[in-house]
């Protein structure tokens, strides 16, 4: 079974799930040859008893369009996460979670999956794009930031802080990184 790379981006109101909420998430499913085969996104109601972290709330105040986008058409986390699992299972391939940085995005997605669905189609695994860039570029981890990546890896796609936009953009970046790695 071929792998499906599910580039995922989350928007949150704080640094960790539980005390803070995942406000929205978007996933873009790509094949290794960079075909965008499907997308999923949802805006979530906040967790009962959770509050926004002051620093994150201050950042959101500077992003009014992205804030408005993630606060419309809200769904309960349980409904959204169950639909997400069904979407992942409908894809024709083995799902691989991909994010930049995976340590943050996967933390929220995995926590929400386990809390509201009781399972993760990704198991316990996530592929971190920055770590992959480190290996491809043969650089140190701290030197593998987006500003140090070759411009040829970037498509002209927006990074808007709207979860689905960013998932699509980062998924294309990941596919370009894989292509560069295969050419090397």
TrEMBL record:
The lineage of its organism: Bacteria, Pseudomonadati, Pseudomonadota, Betaproteobacteria, Burkholderiales. It comes from Pelomonas caseinilytica. InterPro entries: RNaseH-like_sf, RNaseH_sf. GO terms for molecular function: exonuclease activity. SUPFAM superfamilies: Ribonuclease H-like (SSF53098). This is Exonuclease. Keywords: Exonuclease, Hydrolase, Nuclease.
């Amino acid at each position: 079974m071929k792998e499906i790379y599910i580039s995922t981006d989350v928007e949150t109101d704080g640094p960790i799930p539980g005390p803070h909420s995942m406000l929205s998430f978007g996933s873009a499913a790509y094949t290794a040859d960079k075909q965008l085969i499907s997308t999923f996104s949802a805006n979530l109601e906040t967790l009962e008893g959770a509050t926004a972290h002051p620093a994150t709330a201050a950042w959101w105040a500077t992003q009014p369009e992205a804030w408005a986008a993630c606060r419309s058409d809200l769904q309960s986390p349980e409904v959204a996460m169950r639909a997400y699992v069904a979407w992942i299972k409908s894809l024709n391939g083995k799902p691989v979670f991909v994010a930049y940085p995976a340590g943050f995005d996967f933390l929220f997605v995995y926590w929400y999956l386990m809390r509201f669905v009781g399972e993760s189609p990704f198991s316990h695994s996530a592929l971190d794009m920055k770590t992959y860039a480190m290996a491809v570029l043969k650089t140190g981890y701290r030197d593998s930031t987006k500003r140090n990546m070759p411009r040829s890896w970037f498509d002209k796609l927006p990074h808007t802080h709207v979860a689905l936009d960013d998932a699509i953009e980062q998924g294309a970046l990941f596919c370009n990184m894989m292509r560069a790695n295969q050419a090397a």
